[in-house]
Amino acid sequence: AATGRPLVMASSLRALALGAAPVAAGALVGAVLAAKKGEVYCGFYRGGAAEPAAAEAAIPPAAFAAHAAAVAAGAPLVLCGSGVRAYAVEVAAAPGARLLDTPLGPDAVEVGRLCLGRLGAVGPVDLATAAPTYVRPSEAELKHGHRGSSSGRRG
Predict the structure, then answer these.
(1) Most buried residue, 8, 17, 74, 84, by CB count within 10 Å?
(2) C-beta of residue 41 within 8 angstroms of C-beta of residue 32
(3) Are 127 and 5 in contact (CB under 8 A)?
(4) Which percentage of the chain shows pLDDT scores above 70?
(5) Could you give the residue ranges of the DSSP H alpha helices within the chain?
(6) CB count, 10 Å around CB of 33?
(7) Is the peptide bond before 137 cis (omega within 30 degrees of 0)?
(8) 114 near 15, Cβ under 8 Å?
(9) DSSP code for 7
(10) Under 8 Å CB-to-CB from 102, ≥6 apart: which residues?
(11) What is the pLDDT of residues 56-71, one digit of tens each?
(12) What is the pLDDT of residues 103-135, one digit of tens each?
């Protein structure tokens, strides 16, 4: 990097789940962010290290309960994030879900924890090839009908 510091990338959904993991008491944690445009970004994570249980997704709030039920497969489920507040009725329809008032978004401390763990495990990301992961196509991709080369890669 130009600053001489390593570049490390982390999922904001996973960071959100990591913040909720201590109160989840072993339940699957669903991180749900209001994504605007009639969607929520969601990810599901297991354990104190918030290990991914399914791919992150952008879905309509009305489809959230069925998606959460399929991922949880009967396991206890704790849901957190701004999407819980913005779409309370739709999110609360997830079978057996416990809704948390906080956290609403990822905390910088949790992002830092994820990045430190990733830095130690796999090292920094090459700035020349680094690409963020988006869970839905950008407006430009939608307008022009194709996904760019950076979609689907995780940093």
Answers:
(1) 17
(2) yes
(3) no
(4) 92
(5) 12-24, 61-72, 82-86, 88-92, 108-122, 139-144
(6) 25
(7) no
(8) yes
(9) B
(10) 80
(11) 999 999 999 999 999 9
(12) 899 999 999 999 999 999 999 998 888 888 888
